[in-house]
């Protein structure tokens, strides 16, 4: 898998940077969790401050665009981002293992 940064935009009103990445996949589309880990390596930031908004891929092509946000402040991120019920249930189930 290869990921490269296409654009970067600073949004001072929401206290974040907005990124667009181009990604080449090996077999299947990358998951949000794996994309977050790879983006954290590229940006040198913590995974807890990165939110992957969407991964777009055309049918049959092993390339796609990843839209992600890097927040400067964890509190603002928690106010702006919605935690979906599925993701919340998965996070709660992990410590029980």
Task: State the secondary-structure class.
Answer: alpha+beta
Taking pLDDT < 50 over at least 5 consecutive residues as the criterion, the unreliable ranges are none
Order of helices and strands: EEHEEHH
Discrete helix count: 3
Shape: globular
Strand content: 35-45%
Q: Which terms would index this structure?
A:
single chain, 4 strands, globular, 3 helices, four-stranded antiparallel β-sheet, alpha+beta, 97 residues
Task: Produce a short descriptive summary.
The protein has helices at residues 32-43, 74-80, 85-93; strands at 2-11, 16-24, 50-57, 63-71.
What does this structure look like?
- The protein has 97 residues and is of the alpha+beta class.
- It contains three helices and four strands, in the order E-E-H-E-E-H-H.
- Strands 1-2-4-3 form a four-stranded antiparallel beta sheet.
- Strand 1 and strand 2 form a beta hairpin.
- The termini are far apart.
What's the topology here?
Layout: E1 2-11, E2 16-24, H1 32-43, E3 50-57, E4 63-71, H2 74-80, H3 85-93
Antiparallel strand pairs: 1-2, 2-4, 3-4
């Amino acid at each position: 898998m290869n990921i490269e940064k296409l654009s970067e935009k600073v949004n001072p009103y929401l206290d974040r940077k907005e990124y667009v990445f181009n990604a080449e996949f090996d077999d299947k589309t990358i998951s949000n969790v794996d994309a977050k880990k790879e983006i954290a390596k590229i940006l040198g930031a913590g995974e807890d401050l990165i939110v992957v908004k969407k991964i777009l891929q055309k049918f049959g092509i092993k390339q796609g665009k990843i839209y992600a946000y890097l927040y400067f402040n964890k509190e603002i991120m928690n106010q702006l981002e919605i935690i979906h019920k599925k993701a919340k249930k998965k996070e709660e189930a992990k410590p029980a293992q």
